[in-house]
Amino acid sequence: MAEIVLGMGTSHGPMLVTPPHTWGSRLPDDRRSLHHYQGRTWTFDELVQHRASENLAAQITPEMWEVRHARCMQAIERMSQVLADARPDVAVIVGNDQMEIFDDMLVPAFSVMWGETIVNNMISDEKLSRLPPGVAHAMPGYMPPEATYAGVPALGRHMIERAVADGFDITALKHLSATETPHAFGFVFRQLMKDQVIPTVPVLINTFYPPNQPTAARCHAFGRSLARAIQSWDSDARVAIIASGGLTHFVIDETVDQLILDSMRAHDFAPVEGLGEAIFQAGTSEVKNWIPVAGAMDELGFSMEVIDYVPCYRSEAGTGNAMGFACWRPDNNKERIQ
């Protein structure tokens, strides 16, 4: 049977693949957008007033941006080394799509790709021109000019069949797109695998778009199902399960992030579920890519190490991206967490 040798969780935001002196290029979009924070919607100016006592101006100086960027780069390199040291034959990557391959005509709740190949080419100039300010220059961090990687059809199909048997309705994909891959997956391919991409099964969760966002509890149960499916696959492959996305953004909430990380470290999902679904909206919804991996690790009893947590603020409103980097590895004394 296959062996799960590693779990990982990584943020993947544009601030991780762009130099810190460009982080302010997102501010025009921040100022005109509505933002989700503490379970409700705010204007930029309302957030500035609400968070005035936090002195966030001290978090957005060029010097602080340099420090935070350096920490993130160190964490990414550490994650890459942990992945290489685990020597997986196969990766199962849990990520989300932001209307990169789907559109509002079709947004599945859970999808698994069981095709032969994954195409990850740079998006067209026309698509680049429609990206929000400060995002287009980040795309090389996710997409090379052209690349094709191997899928794992046998494992993908086995995961689909086992998930269906466990009561999950899965959209079965033979390919992601003819030309490109969602950036959640491209980040792992380029930044953690360094373009040396091992055969991969992409798993997509609709974190962003109502009305069919899976609940946090459903995502956790799905992760347990994935772990059982992988372990029952008739193969001697070594498998890594990797979450890509999060943590809180587009408004950072360090209290929420610490609760989530502490709960995952303790194998105690109740506090995360207790946050309520209103918290898991907009960018923060990508925590639901981590939750299935945490569920899988609860099934296995692996120990979690937080490699770093770096809140990368870019405005006095608290906009930005909280970057999290963590791994789960086998514990010699592990027990399944019920």
From TrEMBL:
Residue span, Extradiol ring-cleavage dioxygenase class III enzyme subunit B domain: 67-255
Keyword Oxidoreductase attached: yes
Domain of life: Bacteria
Cross-referenced Pfam families: LigB
Gene Ontology molecular function, alphabetical: ferrous iron binding; oxidoreductase activity, acting on single donors with incorporation of molecular oxygen, incorporation of two atoms of oxygen
Protein name, as recorded: Protocatechuate 3,4-dioxygenase
Organism field: Cupriavidus lacunae
Keywords: Dioxygenase, Oxidoreductase
